[in-house]
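[Backbone geometry]
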Amino acid sequence: MLKVDIQKHIAYVTLDRPDVHNAFNDELIKLITEAFTECGRRDEVRVVVLGGSGKSFCAGADLNWMKRMVDYSREENIQDARLMAGMFLAIAKCPKPVIARVHGAALGGGSGMVASCDIGVAMESAQFGFTEVKLGIIPSVISPFVVARIGPGRAREYFITGERF
């Protein structure tokens, strides 16, 4: 689900759910949060590289996980959102430089992950997008990270249109 490999002062954190384009669920959120917290504490780690296995960097939230949340209480939904926000904060506040290595799709929360990193390096064929609008929802938890990265004007445009870029 998540691989962490430290080599020569570089921590490689790799999302490893290629069958679902590395979409995150509650379990992966917990693992990512823990990995970035741990990498930040380790003296031998000087930089963290975040990547994904398979065809995509990250397709955002796992739709099966999102379907389960329909039956959650208000309090359970708030707790889930807090845990997800904690994951993005763990990436953004990691005391080591974090570089996103992006290939394939980085959609919704996947784009939010890239926005949370210090540097994003993408293949020319990579695709970004805030596709939540296609599902009738908004990119709420990732919004602060995205607005800080690309500015409010561009964020509004992409949040409303769901256009890929």
User: Anything to note?
Assistant: The mean pLDDT is 96. The first helix runs from residue 26 to 41. The radius of gyration is 15 Å. Strands lie at 2-7, 10-15, 47-52, 98-102, 105-107, 119-122, 127-129.
